[in-house]
Amino acid sequence: MLPMLKRLIKFAAMVVVALAAIGTAMYAFGGRIYMDGGGGLHLGFPESPIAHEQTVEQHRKAQESTAATGATPPSPTAPISAAEPATSPPAAPPAATATAGDWTDFRGPARDGVYRGPRLLATWPVTGLKPVWKQPVGEGYASFVVARGRAFTIEQRGEREVVAAYDVGTGRQIWTNAWPAAFREFMGGDGPRATPTFADGFVYALGAQGELRCLEAATGHVIWRTNILDDAAAPNVQWGMAAAPLLVDDTVVVHPGGPDGKSVVAYNKRTGARVWSSQNDAAGYASPVLATIAGVRQIVVFSATRLMGLKPEDGSFLWDYPWRTQADINASQPLLIGDNRVFLSSGYGVGAAVIELSREGSVFKVREVWRNTKIKNRFNSSVLKDGYIYGFDESIMACVDAATGDLKWKGGRYGYGQLLLSGDQLVVLTEEGELVLVRATPEGHQELARFEAISGKTWNHPAITDGLLLVRNLREMAAFDLRQK
Question: SS3 for 52?
Answer without folding.
Answer: helix
